[in-house]
Amino acid sequence: MGAxxxxxxxxxxxxxxxxxxxxxEFLGSGRLSIKYLHLTPSLEDMLGRLQLDPEVAFHLxxxxxxxxxxxxxxxxxxxxxxxxxxxxxxxxxPFSSSMQQRVQQLxxxxxxxxxxxxxxxxxx
Length: 124
What we know:
Radius of gyration: 17 Å
Largest sheet: none
Strand content: under 5%
Low-confidence stretches: none
Order of helices and strands: HHHHHHH
Shape: globular
C-alpha cells in the first residue's frame, strides 16, 4: 500500500468521522422525542450485533444518558418529549447499578484493570 492510498483512506476516515459527529449532534440537539429513544439500539445491540466500538456506542447514547440524569434530578419535568418519567429512561441512568452491571459485562475484563464501571460511565 503506497503513501497515496494511506492518505486517501485517512481522508475518507476523517470525512466519515465528521459526518458521524454532525449527525449525532443533530440527533441529540434540541428537545429529544420518544422517536429518538425508540430508534436508538440498545447498548447490547450496538456492541454485540452491530459491533460498534464502545466510544461510538456511548457517543450515540450520550443524549439519552444526559436526559436520564436530568430526569432523575427532577422527575416532575418531562425531559423527553412524549415520555413521562419511566423505566424507558431509567434504563439509561449511568449511575444505576443495572447500567453499571451491563457495561461491566459488555466490555472486556482488561477495561476494569484501571477503571471502575462508575468512573467509565461518569466519563460518558
